[in-house]
Amino acid sequence: MKEFKGEPLLECASEDVVRAAQAKRFQTHLVRCARHSPYYRRLFKEAGIRPAAVDLERLSSLPITDKTDFSRHNEDFLAVSRDKIVDIVLSSGTTGRPTRIMYTERDLRRLAYNEQISFSGCGITAADTALLTCTMDRCFIAGLAYFLGIRELGAAAIRNGHGTLASHLEIIRMIKPTVLVGVPSFLRKLAVFLKEHGEDPAGSSVRKLVCIGEPVRGADRELLKLGNDLQALWQADVYSTYASSECISTFCECTAQCGGHLHPDLAIVEILDEAGHPVAAGQTGEVVLTPLDIEGMPLIRFRTGDVSFLMTEPCACGRTSPRLGPILGRKQQMMKVRGTTLYPQAVFAALDEIPDLGDYYLEIIGKENLSDDLVIHLGARAGQPSPEWLKERLQACLRVTPVIVIDPEDKVRHHLYSPESRKPVRVWDRRKSQ
Ligand SMILES: [Zn+2]
């Protein structure tokens, strides 16, 4: 393939110009999948699809690829010879063993470009210094992606990764980064640590926080408690960024902080309803991505499992590209409690608003009548609200009455923090085993 070349101006172009450019890129992508990806070659043959005859208007007629397909037929997605691969990442698969995602040099250049336009979209420039608090190794792509983007932008990166809080504090004192990139709950912990050690985060050099992995905004696009805490503690602007490692695509909020701008030259984004039909802008559904111009493991209509919506009204920053709203939850974790649909994240948001609450995790229990039970296991703590008060409060916020179980704090912690997981495990879904 020719050298990767992005078209950043497409983000400000008219709908017609974007559609024409995407149609061309989409056609090239399909033909490439049919020629070089054993998985898609077989799929197209079996389904009688002639890629040259499928234009962008007929995108929704193509089959969906999900994580199980990708995991089960992993090697068949590889569309180049192994000598072209320069980096291999592992993602948690659905078949019990990790799934490989293989990148060529060109794919990494494309990723660097993607992160560069994401970072510059939220106002980061070559003059900035970014402290990266996410790991560069352990077979993850995120840390490497942010490093590549910062480098592409000409800004300076400090790769302290999963360093201790004390080491981050020392770096903030010594090198004075203007940007922090990391998981929001960790960035909040870091701010509290700074305060405890006589350093006011609000008075530090940090001006922007790029948040990954956890939502900082709710469906109304307003900051959640976590986002508000970050803004107040650091006195810095909070930006949310969303990424799919399988699709090698990321979307970051711009300076208007109103959803992550889509990059029309890099990916086509669809939002699908329960039946798999595309929904209109503003409607909630599953995010399905077709990343364009990928060399190593190209994908078509990949189900991310994440639930969100698109925003198409004009953005204050001047870009015309639609934006992806906050991630409202994982499709798999959707609950139906007596007719009300909700995601664990809405429960977290409601619980996080309540002061003095102990640690907690959720248990979702399936029942025969298709209604789920939501059980909140709360760590015992002196002075916290009573289970009755909590029930009423949650009923008012969520229109669902959960079962509240008070457990010893160490039991709750044992469920939350497992050595195998990067993040606390807050949801125990018992429905699959029933
Ligand atoms: Zn914007």
Beta-strand content bin: 15-25%
Q: What is the architecture of the largest domain at the second tier of CATH?
A: 3-Layer(aba) Sandwich
Q: What ligands does this structure carry?
A: zinc ion
Counted up, domains total: 2
Please outline the major beta sheet.
6 strands, mixed
Tell me the number of helical segments per DSSP (H or I, 4 or more residues long): 11
* Spatial order of the strands forming the largest sheet: 4-3-5-6-7-8
Give an overview of the whole structure.
By secondary structure, the protein is α/β, with parallel strands linked by helices. It has two domains: 330 residues, 3-Layer(aba) Sandwich (Rossmann fold), CATH 3.40.50; 96 residues, GMP Synthetase, Chain A, domain 3 (2-Layer Sandwich). Helix content is 30%, strand content 23%. The chain contains eleven helices and 21 strands. The strands form six sheets. It has a six-stranded mixed β-sheet with strand order 4-3-5-6-7-8, with helices on both faces. Strands 10-11-12-15 form a four-stranded antiparallel β-sheet. Strands 20-19-18-21 form a four-stranded mixed β-sheet. Strand 1 and strand 2 form a beta hairpin. Helix 1 crosses helix 2. The longest helix is centred in the N-terminal third of the chain and has 22 residues. Zinc ion binds next to loops. Zinc ion (ZN) binds next to loops.
